[in-house]
Amino acid sequence: MDITPYVESLRQDLTAAADAGGAEAKAAAERLALALDPAVRLALMDVLSQAEAEITAELPSGSVEVRLKGREPQL
After folding, report:
1. Contact 56, 66 (CB under 8 A)
2. Mean pLDDT on 34-38
3. Contact 19/28 with Cβ under 8 angstroms?
4. How far apart are CA 59 and CA 50, in angstroms?
5. Residues ≥6 apart with Cβ < 8 Å to 52
6. What is the pLDDT of residues 39-59, one digit of tens each?
7. Given 2, 14, 27, 49, which is the most exposed site by the fewest CB atoms within 10 A?
8. Is 49 helix (H, G, I), strand (E, B) or coil?
9. How far apart are CA 49 and CA 46, in angstroms?
10. What angle do CA 9, 10, 14 make, to 5 degrees?
């Protein structure tokens, strides 16, 4: 599962919101978005792991697993 589009969308939303503050605010938002990239990816992995646990608990048999391949999770 490629989570990069979600991370990019968040980055774009942050910089768009900062546009109202001018060039300095936009530049700061861009730097902040780059710094937050690993944290956002980790948060998305946490969400997927929670979903994995809930789905597995509801299955009559079998399970769902989330594994990390490179920087991307796989179900």
Report:
1. no
2. 91
3. no
4. 15
5. 64, 65, 66, 75
6. 999 999 999 999 999 999 999
7. 2
8. helix
9. 5
10. 120
